[in-house]
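User: Sequence in, structure out. Go.
Assistant: Echoing your sequence, followed by the structure tokens.
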Amino acid sequence: MLQQMRDRFRYLKWLLVIIIFMFIWWAFATWGGGTSGTRPEADWAARVNGVAIPVATLQAYARRLDSTYQSMLGEQYAQQRSLIRIGQQAINTLIEQELIYQEALRQGLAVTAQEVVDSIVRDPNFQEKGQFIGKERYRNLFQGNRVSVSGYEDQIRRGLVIDKLRRMIEDGVTVSDAEVEQEFLKRNEKASVEYLVVDPARMRAQSAPAEADLQRHYDGHLDRYTRGEGRTGLFVLFGASDLSAAQNVTGEDVTAAYERLKATRYSTGEQRCASHILFKVDNAAAPDAVSKAEKKARDVLKRAKSGEDFAALARRYSEDSTSQAGGDLGCFGRGQMVREFEQAAFALEADGISDLVRTPYGFHVIKATGSRPPHTTPIEEVRDTLRQEIQLDRARSEARKRSADFARAAAGGNLEAVAKSQGLTVQQTGAVREGDALPGLLASQTVVERMRDLAPGQVSDSIPVPSGQVVVQVTGTVPAAPLPFPESRAQVLKDFEEERARQSVARAVRSAGSPGGLQAAARTLKTELKTQADVTRGSSLAGVPPDPQIEKQITTLPPGTVGDPVSTSAGIVVLRVSERRDHRDEFASQRDSISDGLLRQRQDKLYRALVKRLRERGDILLNEAAIKAMDQV
């Protein structure tokens, strides 16, 4: 009997393995071989360089993510799901995997049949007592399951191809001994620091600075008021709105889109309208604080149930942001409020008042002010809007395709000639620098950012902007140059006054002298002297934002030395390192683990950079409706 139970357990273990890979097969079985001419447009969630990722694949992966988050977050998941955007996360991962696989094939990477066999034989899930279970038992595991042996092995092959590319990327990454030592010091070097923070407004001179002083400050610090190198160029805009009218959208297209979106966009479930009075108390509050809040809430509850004006009570007693609106929360559906609040609100009749409701926010008194039945907006009310959306969506896809083709044709540096041959309008960028947008094109800073990476003569790939797609060619560079004084004056004045304040603090510290140190300076400046032990590299002082000058002083000042004043958003900081310990005797024992950690970080950074570059250069089309539908479920 015991042996039978063991045999059954092993069978169940392998069955679980197959179930897991059934999911993988489902997610990829129809993916990777191009798109089918008979597949309707609504069946794909994304197209990656012409390869379709089916909606079924997106749904399967999104459901897996959904279950994972549900396990992690429990009851809070319902309130946070809309922020997590399951559909967007799922499609991003699937697109990334497809891009990497395509790049691996482009690099000529391949996997032999023997490599697939070796991978399966070495898989512990297909072993018994350290040995492969045998070809016949392996194949029997797939019988009666949706996934076939060939389908499973195709996905093993795909994974091995991707692994080869990743190893090829990672093999060229190294970490030097100096970098390992720097990381060790960052983690282990600790300092004890005394510091004070001075409000610069208290040190500001009573009289305004003379214009001549500001001009001298500007002349002496031109590097602070200089705009970096810029670019000039030509660009072609492929506007989605210009292409929209030419898109043929039939009544059947509109009806199909409406039916696909009806449950998520055009239908609302039953809603409750309510007001509430909140008495805040944290779940971790002391028992006496909880009792005090509950007593106050019960007193108000009694008055509300006796007929006093609920809105007036909310305005007077509620500790919620809705108090000035009489506690009015408007109308909400299921899943929008925390569970305890939702259950109480949906249990009330119209004008009913709940008993006390305890939630993570505190105690609530809830009044139902109305309800709304489930409602579906009829297609007649949205037909025109939906038709325009479909036209614009197809126009955006057309703009992406046309602009990508144009960018390839103009890649040799002849944007203007190619545009002329295609009857397209070429526009001048003018001189643009970091942070600028193209003339007449809102939110086009990404185009300028891309121009900064190009040399004169180079043509960009297709760049998305809100109004469509842009292809740009850099024609020249604009040298860095200081802003004229009138344009910089406000910043010059701020910097000048900060500098005067720093000098005043420095004089006060010097006049206090070494016997009293910073303690005497703190008394003179009427501020608190603070101390902080175990300050590591990269960490900040309490109440002070991270600042490279402060970090440099903490890591380089000899113990006992007072540093120069540093201006921060929290005030002017003066510090003294009283002690520093670097624990170098522990370096040998930590060297290997630090080196491995840095190597993995650098490898991952390089891999993520490749993914980013592939996304930027790839021809990626999204079925936004399908993705949003997963976000809204």
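User: And one key feature?
Assistant: The chain is about 50% helix and 20% strand.
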